[in-house]
Amino acid sequence: MELLLALLIAALVVATVSRQRNPLKVCPTCKGAGVLPSGIWSKRYRPCPRCGRKGEISTR
Ligand SMILES: [Zn+2]
User: Fold this and answer.
1) Distance in Å, CA 39 to ligand 1 centroid
2) How many domains does the chain fold into?
3) Which of 4, 11, 20, 53 could form a Cys-Cys staple with 34, CB 3.0–4.6 A?
4) 39 lies in which domain range?
């Protein structure tokens, strides 16, 4: 049980460090474009609501 807890803490530390080293990553919704294809008009694009048109999202 203690080993499991230690592994869990280690995983959390690794996740925190990797987040601090990569505070921004390409938005998976729009893949960095910042816009999404509109569902109604196939040639139109609308701003991505997740990243706010930047194409990158903060992982924090
Ligand atoms: Zn996006």
Assistant:
1) 15
2) 1
3) 53
4) 2-58
Q: What angle do CA 21, 23, 25 make, to 5 degrees?
A: 110
Q: How far is the CA of 11 from the centre of ligand 1 (A)?
A: 27
> Could you read off the pLDDT tens digit of each residue along the chain, which spans 60 residues?
899 999 999 999 988 877 666 667 889 989 889 998 887 777 788 899 888 888 888 866
4-12 long-range contacts, Cβ below 8 Å, gap at least 24? none
Ligand 1 centre distance from Cα of residue 49 (Å):
7
Amino acid letter, residue 10: A
The pTM (predicted TM-score) of the whole model is 0.49
Integer Cα distance of 32 and 14 in angstroms:
25
Distance of CA 47 from the midpoint of ligand 1 (Å): 8
